[in-house]
Amino acid sequence: SKNLQSFDRMLIADYAFLSEVPESHSLEGYLFPDTYEVWEDQLPEGLIRKQLRTFANKVIIPLEEQRAASGLSWHEVVTLASIVEAEVRTPKTRKVVAGIFLNRLNDGMRLQSDATLNYIIDEGRDRATQQDLKLDSPYNTYRLEGLPPGPVGNPGLSSIEAVLNPTPTEYYFFLTDESGNVYYAETFEGHQRNRQEAFGS
Q: Which of 109, 108, 85 is nearest to 97 (CA)?
């Protein structure tokens, strides 16, 4: 389930970075995606601690200086990185898309991310509908400004690094076609032209 409910606040004593996570949110975003050796009789808490330890060793410790320089909290970094991870696939495009989202955040624009919308709509559907865009949810970045309350998945290192070291860009818009090609635009008009080219609509 997306909200673990069994979020163990005792973990904060061992993993201080979890103190930024709202009580209503789960550990999603902090369970670092990696290859783990798991024993048949291992308790879930043991695996969770292993994932958090990996997150600390691969993310928090080596990237803390960059995080501090970014002006973002770790929770903001992980939340934005999870959106970037869900939107695009390659390290190069992730850095550009992170730059676009940061431009939008810095200018008070809504993120309007399909990744956050897909997090709240029924799974198994290919694409959000016009009705979905109106959903009343703190994860609906088509309606609300700023970041959602927490991550929409567990981002890998490349997405986290993209948020901390984005490609400086004048772009404010992007879209991905069905083949995975990414189109960028500085203006909404340019974005509409890209949409026409990519989807014919």
A: 85
